[in-house]
Backbone:
């Protein structure tokens, strides 16, 4: 095979109580990569669409390029070269795992072209390397679910321990992306370096509850566990009317809601797609009343992760 | 029925990463209560054995007495009176949930005498009231598992949300109680009021991992998640050679080990009773080398909680 097309889904990192340790993938939207083997070594990014010209074509500055280079080095095939087209379907800097999805799609594509020597979870470190270049930290809470699908717990970084957490079939997600710019650096800088013991305990309790809720298909427990004592109290300042927005989502039928990644996108979990659509409308209306345009995405939780298409 | 006998098991609170939010019950040892309906109102504690004369016979100062009084008030039967004998089989102040077991046994006994109007999880608040009297804080991480059995997550206190977490059949526990005195107040006082963000995140990750390990019967994950970034780093100073003890337990085959409650008892989880016995011997030997006598208890995890016998 000489060329391949791959898809990797958007992801919600943090999931309220899972700050820095949890993420899940949704079925759509996602980024697409077309990759073709080339005659000369190295990664050549020939085209990027859907980014409004914002992303670098230089492979060593682009997450897709960095991930592929890291992968080729790891499998000991430095002589391989590829041409790569990246079709962005995710908004940039939105908190929906845009940089992760590009890296994940590129990794699935190159792994397919190389005859799939690595499993999807083995691709994660190469996508983390790309995150390090894009965001300054090699976090896995977007790349792991984008590659592996479903909910992924990053139990430990050294050594990397990724735990797939099963979830109820009916679980679905609303993402509402208000047209605001929040820089990841800013949203990380405002976090406290120390947290009150009571907040740390509450966060532990809720993430434990979320795990049990997901594994035992207990929607009530899932909803009640969607609380964040660590990041949300400060990050929510970036999102106009955030507390009201959460109430609106719950009144419309959501199990719970929170900030997707470092924002500004807001997510809500629901146990029914029709309810999720209603929740999405209510959230968009909320932003509209504040004169903010927003895009809404409703999707079930993705099971497969990044795939060749 | 005029009289009844009840049993409530010892418990391990905290379970490393579940600081202040998690506990589990073991099959033995446990406390026993004999209770008889009396002709006059109030709780009369006629006899306590096994405490070396240390526990108060005054009902309003004894956890069993306080729990029964709280229960009778709640069900609106202030005219009821009981005579109560308490047979302590748990060492006092050991970190094995001794005060909790007495309250739990007394509550199951009085509930039986009253025709079981309350479910076991509904008895928890009355046992918490007893903990408030005994320890100064109405914590639930011993009383909830002693009453309900198994692993219980206290996801939230206000309102109280108790989550039973299923666990693998083969899971068993070693408790080694070194003959040391550690006051709960001391072991609480040395805790920091704030924790570094990185420690809070690690704690969340491990308790999430433990929940997944228990629910998916993943012994490796259970073992790797038995880490405590919050209490153990300071509380372990009270336990001679603690780090070495943990290594010894793991070398002998334990999945992991930690401090039971606020200590000084140390627990280890194993996936086999024979291994657990070997682990117990190794831990006792460790303390013996430091000229410390210790008692060892090996038991599978209790499923039923407190019961009438």
Residues:
């Amino acid at each position: 095979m000489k060329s391949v097309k791959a898809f990797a889904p958007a992801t919600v990192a943090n999931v309220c109580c899972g700050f820095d340790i949890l993420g899940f993938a949704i079925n759509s939207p996602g980024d697409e990569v077309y990759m073709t083997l080339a005659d000369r070594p190295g990664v050549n990014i020939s085209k990027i669409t859907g980014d409004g010209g914002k992303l670098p074509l230089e492979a060593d500055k682009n997450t897709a390029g960095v991930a592929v280079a890291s992968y080729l080095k790891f499998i000991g095939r430095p002589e391989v070269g590829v041409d790569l087209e990246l079709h962005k379907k995710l908004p940039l800097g939105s908190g929906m795992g845009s940089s992760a999805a590009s890296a994940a799609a590129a990794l699935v594509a190159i792994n397919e072209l190389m005859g799939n020597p690595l499993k999807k979870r083995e691709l994660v470190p190469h996508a983390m390397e790309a995150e390090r270049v894009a965001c300054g930290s090699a976090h896995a809470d977007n790349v792991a679910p984008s590659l592996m699908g479903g909910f992924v717990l990053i139990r430990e970084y050294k050594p990397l321990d990724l735990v797939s957490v099963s979830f109820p079939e009916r679980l679905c997600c609303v993402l509402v992306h208000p047209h605001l710019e929040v820089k990841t650096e800013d949203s990380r800088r405002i976090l406290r370096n120390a947290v009150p013991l009571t907040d740390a305990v509450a966060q532990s309790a809720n993430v434990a509850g979320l795990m049990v809720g997901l594994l035992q298909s207990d929607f009530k427990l899932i909803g009640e566990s969607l609380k964040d004592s660590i990041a949300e109290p400060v990050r929510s300042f970036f999102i106009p009317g955030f507390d009201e927005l959460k109430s609106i989502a719950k009144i419309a039928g959501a199990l719970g809601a929170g900030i997707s990644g470092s924002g500004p996108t807001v997510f809500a979990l629901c146990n029914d797609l029709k309810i999720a659509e209603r929740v999405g409308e209510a959230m968009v209306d909320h932003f509209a009343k504040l004169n903010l345009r927003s895009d809404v995405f409703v999707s079930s939780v993705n099971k497969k992760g990044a795939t060749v298409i």
The interface with chain B takes residues 17-22, 153-156, 161, 163, 165-166, 191-197, 199-212, 215-216, 221, 224-225, 230 of chain A (CB under 8 Å).
